[in-house]
Amino acid sequence: MDEPFSALDPISRQKLQQDIVKLQKKIKKTIVFVTHDMQEALALGDRICVMKDGEVVQCDTPTNIISNPKNDFVENFFKSGNAYNTCVLKGEYKVKDLIDIELYNHYKYKTQNNNISIDDESSFEDLLKLLKDEELILVRHKGEIIGTIDSNNVVKFISMQLEKGGDV
Predict the structure, then answer these.
(1) Which domains does the chain carry?
(2) Torsion of CA 40, 42, 48, 52, to 10 degrees
């Protein structure tokens, strides 16, 4: 497969990547997949072969290539594709997933201008990025503040996902 997803929008691309992983597990056949997208290679590959000028530079598992690049070329190649900035969570969680299971603090106070807020449709990763610097994040649903989320809520959510055997 020579760059089969390169001309697709991000949503279609991600869905097809997930489908190809499921298909490969089902048919249990080797698929040679050519891509210049390091994120895609890491997401899809059991083994990755890095080439330069028609020569194999390193062929290894995604984990070994990231943690033990053979040389500067391999390391810089993956750095250039933001391969070291992969998703924290495998699941596509959103802030609303915490709201749905009541893992937030109901908001009782008037909003202040300096509070940081996030929409409930935002990604879980965006929430984590905000909590890195803030103790408490206001949560909006359709523009209205409905409550707050703090790091304790996030830890409980992750623990629940692990207990259920979910992807984290």
Answers:
(1) 10-80 (no CATH), 95-163 (3.10.580.10)
(2) 60
Per-residue pLDDT of the chain (168 residues; tens, 9 = 90+): 999 998 888 888 888 888 888 888 899 899 999 998 888 888 888 899 999 999 999 999 988 888 889 999 998 888 877 666 555 566 678 999 999 999 999 876 555 555 789 999 998 888 988 998 888 899 999 988 899 999 999 999 888 877 776 555
- φ and ψ of 84, to 5 deg: -90, 0
Sign of CA dihedral 72, 75, 80, 85: negative
Q: Between the CA of residue 140 and those of 127, 137, 155, 156, 162, what are the distances in Å?
A: 12, 10, 20, 20, 27
Alpha helices, DSSP H only, in the chain?
10-27, 38-44, 62-67, 72-80, 95-100, 124-133, 151-163
Distance, in Å, from the CA atom of 54 to the CA atom of 62, rounded to the nearest integer, reads 20
* Residue type (1 letter), 128: L
CA angle at residue 12 from 154 to 87, to 5 degrees?
Answer: 30
DSSP state for residue 2 in the 8-state scheme: B
